[in-house]
Amino acid sequence: MTRPIPCDILVFGGTGDLALHKLLPALYHLYHEGRLHPEVRIIALARSPLARQAYQLLAERHCRAQVAQHDFDVDTWTRFSARLDYFPMDAGQSADFGRLARYLGEPGGLTRIYYLATAPTLFAPIAAHMKVAGLADSEARIVLEKPIGHSLESAKAINEAIGAVFEESQVFRIDHYLGKETVQNLMALRFANALFEPIWRTGYVDHVQISVCETLGVENRGGYYDRAGAMRDMVQNHLLQLLCLVAMEAPAHFDAEGVRDEKVKILKALKPINGQDVQDKTVRGQYGAGKIGGQEVPAYYFEKNVDNDSDTETFVAIQAEIANWRWAGVPIYLRTGKRLGKKSSQIVIQFKHVPHLLFEGGQTNQLVIQLQPDERISLRMMTKTPGKGMHLAPVELDLNLAQAFSQTRRWEAYERLLLDVVEGDSTLFMRRDEVEAAWAWVDPILNGWQEHFQAPRPYPAGSHGPDQAHALLEHQGRKWHL
Ligand code: BG6
Predict the structure, then answer these.
(1) Domain carrying residue 125
(2) Residues labelled catalytic
(3) Inter-residue contact 193 to 200 (CB < 8 Å)
(4) How many other β-carbons are positioned within 10 Å of the β-carbon of residue 338?
(5) Which ligand 1 atom lies nearest to the CA of residue 228?
(6) Is the dihedral of CA 419, 425, 430, 432 positive or negative?
(7) Residue 101 belongs to a domain with what CATH number?
(8) pLDDT tens digits for range 254-282
(9) Residue 60 CA, ligand 1 centroid: distance in Å
(10) Ligand 1 binding pocket includes 206 (Cβ within 6 Å)
(11) Is ligand 1 within 6 A of the CB of residue 375?
(12) What are the DSSP E strand ranges found in 51-195?
């Protein structure tokens, strides 16, 4: 374990859901495991006029709720909370940054990490105010939460404004999917095992499915979500990042530039979807009322802070294609949705049939990489059933990762990513050109939906999504893996 680096961690949006539900519990875990310097200062910044002690109590309530009971230790909490402070300020007011600078004092060799857990519209003003107040020194690091902007143009404007204040090496654009254990395992599976490499390509792979299905609705985030929708909230970032890891070439080195150079090549090789293809290769949906786990839930347009006549999509399915030598002609189906019947994030690599069928009833090999809720990798193999005759049946080779490493605590994505920021490792963060390349592919689809007034297809909460998403695959003789 490397020696913890002395640093200050400042969280803009310190009273928001992300800070309270994810960032503080992650920092608590890191502190508990001795990964943060004992003198670290964690300073939450927000507008509410809270006293330090009131914030510490708020933080404690949330951490107790998020951290597993056996990991919550009262002594550690007392020490951790002594490192936790609150500074009320308005991130839109330049003068408040002057106050903040005086409160922080000289960095004196400390690394200062500024985590912007705020709306993206505040990213550029915060960076500009930091510069004026002298807070943007060359040791500072800035962490930006997704989504970076609302479109290619707004993302470029944000990147430009951030780039005017910070060097690219100081900027950490977070996509928490890259911090998930199983997502990184995808790289281990592909690049530390020789087995799949020769067949991980066109000619052997029939198609790929990448699905992130949620049972949750929009919870308390209706205001944000109704302006974003599933395309901006999930596809532009999490799903395209998963796609990059599935499809990229092996980098020469496992380092920030090596990995990100390969990912960006995939984003740039995505075939544009525009014109008639928007109608033929994409499906957008919106959930209606239904039942999740036996409980009645309301339709999307009755959720808090959502317009009653909203046409925001809560579901997207897309048939994508990567135009390069490895993947030409292989459909890559992406799917994500809220309020679906089952929570499951998975990647399915569907292989083709053997070239010449000798036995009846043979199915194809299928590799399923289950990211959540279980972490497992299973490979469907065809085997002979016992008895006379060559009757075949599929059997799974099943690797249960949680069981294989049952003695080790599973890190939350934000723990790993926050530690990477402290240590200055940007391998698992998105580079500017990656974010822009992802928007460049997504924008024409969003525009196509608008131009053709493509209203979202309704689906009942608790179902498998709109019928049209199933038809997308069925027309081609395929079906979604459930
Ligand atoms: C977030 C989205 O980035 O990811 C949410 O804004 C979504 O809408 C969440 O629910 C899903 O993350 P996870 O880790 O629960 O799969």
Answers:
(1) 7-175
(2) 238
(3) no
(4) 25
(5) 6
(6) positive
(7) 3.40.50.720
(8) 999 999 999 999 999 999 999 999 999 99
(9) 23
(10) no
(11) no
(12) 84-88, 111-116, 141-145, 171-174
